Amino acid sequence: MFDIFDSLSSGSQMILVFFLLLFLRVPVAFSLGLSAIYAMWHMGFGLDLAGDLIATGITKFSLLAIPFFILAGTLMGRLGIADRMIRFFRVLVGGLPGGMGVVGTVVCLFWGAVSGSGPASVAAIGPMIIKGMEEDGYRKSYAAGLVCTGAALSIVIPPSIGLVIYGVIAETSISKLFLAAIIPGLMMGGLMMLTLPWGRVKKSPLGDMGKPSVLSRGDNPYAQSAYATRLWASFKDSFWGLLTPVVILGGIYAGVFTPTEAALVATVYALMVGAIIYKTLNIKKLYEAVSDAAASSAVVMLVVAYASLFGWVVTVDDLVGTYSSLLLGMSDNEWVILLVIMLILLIIGMFMDAVTVMFISLPVFLPMVHQLGWDPVWFGVLVMINLSIGLITPPVGINLYVAANVTGLSIEKIARGTLICVGACLVGLALVAFFPQISMVLIGE
């Protein structure tokens, strides 16, 4: 067995060591770093090179978008901006067939355009949406599964942290990636709504088109008014929060600021709305928001830092050429190759977070994308949809763990609740794969 291991190249040994460390439950970031350092030692490189590689890997201007988008989303949750938006969407679509299921889907998609982080979205809006859906006749496990899936799509809906990282790795326009992901993201939301009948076990006590129970509770001050009055009042109350994606995306596409600068704009905007408009900002909430965002950002950036070592070994040992040749040699049919790539991403996504998957797989896949003449923007949207599924699939579907924490349900029950939603996501993945114009229509390609 050790003879076989020794016969492998340093890069291949690194991959095996990486998965061994994961199996031993070593955190992902340290598994990346330790396996890469082992490979560097095996190849005879001095370990003093590691510090330079780590510094180079994280000193990219585009990566500044990650902590600031996370902070913006955290602030909006802490300052009550999320509550106001949910209340507006409850009034707007809560009376449609499906009630709070429709509200949950719409809010998850909208919040994805604010937060950009799946786990953060589950934590911010999950408790309110799941409680409302349960009161409206949905199984609690399905409600948790719907929120997990909708929040997972936050890496598809722009501005997406995943798309920022993909753009950095692939050296592709982040603005084009954002634009290309809009229609696929909305389509995924529509497919999620088609699953609502399977999750609802009983009618709301007051019926779909009347006033569902969740709309007549004390947390909705407009519940007893006429619909137009309730809608207008809740719209005015939530207007500045609803304006957030307009400010972010409008500024990017109008050329006022770059996607990286947009993250800082979103953070300042959230602070201004909380301090001046809603007057909910205080020192305690600011500290809690910054603390939570710093912890979340540190996890992501630590993975990015050690992934730069991993990626350097992949390049130096020519793993890209080796494994690309293996994949291209499997078939002359580009659809078969695409299917194999998507299956690999789906399987790896079950065990690792999206950031790690991109850093270890894209250096292998992107050369094939260029060789086969695929558009890297379209491929980026495909990758994001694929990795969003990984956020809701065991054993390392991080959204499931966050949902379990906020609902008290077991991981197994929530995973069963997501099954029908995973099916909808797979249909969306197939549609974007076979009809690239779905993602390319807004950028005119």
Structure write-up:
There is one protein chain. The protein is mainly alpha-helical and 445 residues long. The protein has one domain (28-34, 48-443). 74% of the residues lie in helices and 0% in strands. It is built from 23 helices and no strands. The longest helix is centred in the last third of the chain and has 34 residues, at 283-316. The protein starts with a helix and ends in a 5-residue tail after the last helix. Mean pLDDT is 79; it is low at 205-218. This is TRAP transporter large permease protein.
What's the Cα radius of gyration? 22 Å
Instruction: State the share of residues found in helices, binned by percent.
Output: over 70%
Find the structural class using helix and strand composition.
mainly alpha
> How many helices in DSSP terms?
23
Which H/E pattern describes the elements?
HHHHHHHHHHHHHHHHHHHHHHH
Query: How many β-strands, per DSSP?
Result: 0
Unreliable stretches covering 5 or more consecutive residues: 205-218
Strand fraction equals under 5%
Distance between the termini: 51 Å
